[in-house]
Amino acid sequence: MSASNKNTRSSEKAFSSGKGLEWASNVYFIGVGGIGMSALARYFVAKGKQVAGYDKTATDITKGLEALGVDICFNDTVNEIGSQYLNKDETLVVYTPAIPNSHSQLNYFKTNGFRVLKRSEVLGDITKQTKCLAVAGTHGKTTTTSILGHLLNACDVPVTAFLGGISENYNSNLILNGTDVTVVEADEFYRSFLTLSPDMACITSMDADHLDIYGNVLELEKSFKDFSECIKPNGKLFVKNGLPLEGITYGVEDDSDYSAKHVKINNGSYVFDVQTPNGLYKDFQFNLPGRHNLSNAIIALAMAVNFGCPHNQLAKGLASYKGVKRRFTYQIKTDDFVFVDDYAHHPEEINAVHQAVREMYPEKKVLVIFQPHLYTRTRDFVDGFAENLSKFDELLLLDIYPARELPIAGVTSKWLLEKINNPNKKLITKSQLIDSIKTSDAQVVLTIGAGDIGAEVKHIKEAFSVAN
């Protein structure tokens, strides 16, 4: 039996006696195609609820939900809502803050007495009913959450893990193996993580981000402190060594409470030991490149050790971890040509990707293709973007992906390009992408960004799989 089938079968048994939002027979999602929303949709399908929803466009995620029986509409009109979801006594409505206030369906539900909750509020309700392990931080949440969920699953813990990306191990953004324990991403966007009630939590990073929401970095840091105070009594907080918060520390080859020691690279994988307060745990293997990913593995191990997972099962679980799609995902990997795709969209994330690719391919020429995400993020961190993009051998820059934003005067990719100190730089359109890559003699090609650059990956892979 596959891991995903095993998880689904055991979760159905566990869900039969679940608590929380059991009053609702139906759940309607507005923004169902979002990565976090779709994980919740899958969760409620597994609980035996009738699930439907709206999203703006069809994607692989919405197609996957439809295959599970989720009815999805793509037009924002009330008459697109199935009749059974118009019963307010049996229907829970879940929405994401990314949905505009003018949304017709959302306004209908709000003005007609339905129980309408944000995604974070639903997660908050679920975590109150379970033993919760939460992963917070401006970077590393998705990878760390997926490692932790995978480790607990490998140790036969009855866990539900809500992921902010598609796990390569499960081909899903949800790990289902029961409901006693939940693993969740604690998202700082719109202070969503303040709805959670974790028994154990970690904070991976507190770099400035989402300044369109927070205004300044001090408010962002305050929100993380507020999150640390959401931990249940007698709970535990783990923090990356160097962060301005009190907690159990973790790091790589340092004096942290939990630290990677004797780190070596063997055939493209990290081999290391873990120093813990109770002694040295030996002989771990981790197959993702980059010290930032190794740090993510250490905190996942630290939390799993504190949960009570045995050393031998943790070692086997970590060695079998395959990663998350669009997190340093190899698309092509040959002796002559490497193509990697990554979600990096913040200067620190770009720096981490650069460090990883240089560590793995120190002698090879590297071409990076970057699509900036949001006008406000580009404006707020333009110097950091310029500094870290300058480190690559060659750069192709795409226009800014606006997502939820309107243009800001003067904030353009051309403005960013002018600040980048790299003689091999060029502003291109998507239609020029493949031809531009073909003119390069780079042996390693990276696509990075959180916009729709991911949709170009399959075209690049097709073009260069044939050539290589």
Main attributes?
468 residues; alpha/beta; Protein-Tyrosine Phosphatase, Chain A; ten-stranded mixed β-sheet; 16 helices; disordered N terminus
In short:
With 468 residues, the protein is an alpha/beta fold.
Summarize the structure in words.
Helix 6 (141-154) packs across helix 9 (291-307), helix 6 crosses helix 10 (311-319) and helix 11 packs parallel to helix 13. The strands form three sheets. This protein has a ten-stranded mixed β-sheet, sandwiched between helices. A hairpin with a 4-residue loop joins strand 16 (329-333) and strand 17 (338-342). It has helices spanning 3-15, 35-46, 60-67, 104-111, 119-128, 141-154, 211-214, 217-228, 291-307, 311-319, 347-360, 375-380, 382-389, 413-419, 433-438, 457-467, and strands at 26-30, 50-54, 71-73, 91-95, 115-118, 131-136, 159-167, 172-176, 181-186, 200-203, 236-240, 248-252, 258-266, 269-276, 279-286, 329-333, 338-342, 366-370, 394-397, 425-427, 444-448. The longest helix is centred in the middle third of the chain and has 17 residues, at 291-307. The protein is α/β, with parallel strands linked by helices and 468 residues long. The protein is 34% helix and 24% strand. Residues 1-19 have low confidence and may be disordered. The chain is built from 16 helices and 21 strands. It has three domains: 20-118, 3-Layer(aba) Sandwich (Rossmann fold), CATH 3.40.50.720; 129-319, Mur-like, catalytic domain (UDP-N-acetylmuramoyl-L-alanine:D-glutamate ligase), CATH 3.40.1190.10; 329-467, Protein-Tyrosine Phosphatase, Chain A (Alpha-Beta Complex).
